[in-house]
TrEMBL record:
It comes from the Eukaryota. It comes from Ladona fulva. Keywords: Signal. Residues 1-20 form the signal peptide. Residues 69-84 have a biased composition (Acidic residues). Pfam families: FBA (PF04300). This is FBA domain-containing protein.
Length: 279
């Protein structure tokens, strides 16, 4: 009888060791699966209505050409030439701080915040609207450089953001605390047969990401020629010392929420800092 009890204890002990080993292996697999998680995305939103102040809106005359050919389908990656600007050059006062402003690098440098409908798309040549406008002399517009493409929005709200770290761009704290002018602009258009919305939000931020100045622009194309390109401009001044970042948030949608990319077209965004002594 004692022999059977001893065998029973030995068998129970071996089973317990096997169960404990399996549990340890499962815990190791669980811990390894937790690594490499994605970070949280900051919330975004579109402001409706012109913020006033130094905002200006220019209408493009579309003199650079008629409606481009092609379907309303997503063009995929899109192909565009280099914009010719060195975004990491030594002098930050002489460059557009907004990177990949025409979709020439797809969505590099941008943080997608909303991707409604069929989502964001890049068009190597704008579809359904005029080509990107030239200067009055017929030369390449410096807002676009050699690029020919644009971003296109889907049937529901699409938003994306680019956060510019001004110290990383080469400005010093003393230069930023001198409150240089901050010039913002961007071009937008809409399909001639479909209603669309365009929104641009720009926020000046301190080191602690405190709001030092904000501008919102919204256009529903109810009074503008939709096929043509239009330009919105804003200049920030006297915003106080402590500026370290600029948040550039733009997007739009198709009012009729149609499949495909019948929303607004966006291209040629610009952020430039200008010394007040240069005016």
């Amino acid at each position: 009888m004692d022999l059977w009890l001893i065998l029973y204890v030995i068998i129970a002990y071996v089973i317990w060791l096997a169960i404990e080993r399996c549990m340890r292996e499962n815990e190791g697999d669980t811990d390894s699966g937790k690594e490499g998680g994605t970070g949280d995305e900051s919330p975004g939103g579109g402001g409706k209505g012109d913020s006033g102040g130094d905002d200006t809106v220019d209408g493009g005359d579309g003199s650079s050409g008629g409606e481009s050919e092609g379907s309303e389908e997503d063009t995929g990656d899109g192909v565009s030439e280099d914009d010719g600007e060195d975004h990491h050059s030594g002098n930050p006062w002489e460059k557009n701080l907004l990177k990949n402003n025409c979709g020439q690098d797809n969505f590099q440098y941008w943080k997608i915040m909303m991707n409604g409908g069929d989502g964001w798309s890049v068009e190597g040549v704008p579809i359904g609207v005029n080509p990107l406008p030239k200067t009055e002399e017929g030369n390449d517009n410096p807002d676009f450089g050699k690029n020919t493409g644009c971003f296109a929005t889907g049937g529901d709200m699409c938003l994306k953001e680019q956060l510019i770290d001004l110290l990383e761009e080469g400005f010093t704290e003393s230069e930023l605390d001198s409150q240089p002018l901050i010039q913002i602009s961007e071009w937008y258009a809409c399909h001639p047969e479909k209603l669309g919305d365009y929104v641009l939000n720009v926020t000046l931020l301190s080191k602690e990401k405190r709001n030092m100045g904000h501008s919102s622009f919204y256009e529903d194309f109810s009074t503008l020629p939709r096929k043509e390109w239009h330009k919105v401009s804003k200049t920030f001044s006297e915003y106080g010392s402590g500026l370290r970042y600029v948040s550039f948030n733009h997007g739009g949608k198709s009012r009729e929420k149609l499949p495909g990319h019948y929303g607004c077209r966006i291209s040629g965004g610009v952020i430039k800092l200008v010394r007040t002594s240069e005016l």
